[in-house]
Design a protein that fits this description.
alpha+beta; Jelly Rolls; 2 domains; four-stranded antiparallel β-sheet; 9 strands; elongated; plasmid
Amino acid sequence: MTTTAIPTNFVDNVGAQVDAAYLNNLGQRVEDTKATSDTNASAISAIVSGTKKAVVATSESTSSTTFTDLTTTTDSVTVTIGSSGIALVFIAATMSNSAVQSSDMGFALSGANTAAASTAQELSFVSAGANYAGSYGTWFLLTGLSAGSTTFKAKYKTGAAGGTATFSNRRIAVIPFP
């Protein structure tokens, strides 16, 4: 595609011969620009319309030292992973712990892709004191996924026995790339 600017009117091209060949070339450049714009618009639309999120405001707790569900289990989203095999995952929550240890939030995958929640992909808040709270978020770029419908489910745990991790305003969002 030519990078020559398209004149906005014939005054911009003073001295240029305006004939059928010129107008045909101008028309083709407009069509080329439109095709590129349409392709970009389609890609952006696929990303935006494929984005899913879930929010649970309820405060809930766990004493589990392995990733588990909380009482309200609507903290999951299902998206269609595209042929790129890429998804961007966001997780966030307000977290506290009854002891001076971590409260951890991760996510598991099921469907076309399966993976257990892992400390390699978690949001971890270490309380400076008993029942201190903080609101945090993070993101993970996942690559090498299989195309198809995949559910991303938030999971929770406490860092060590003896503590109770509490979570509220839990959020998970996933942007699958086409």
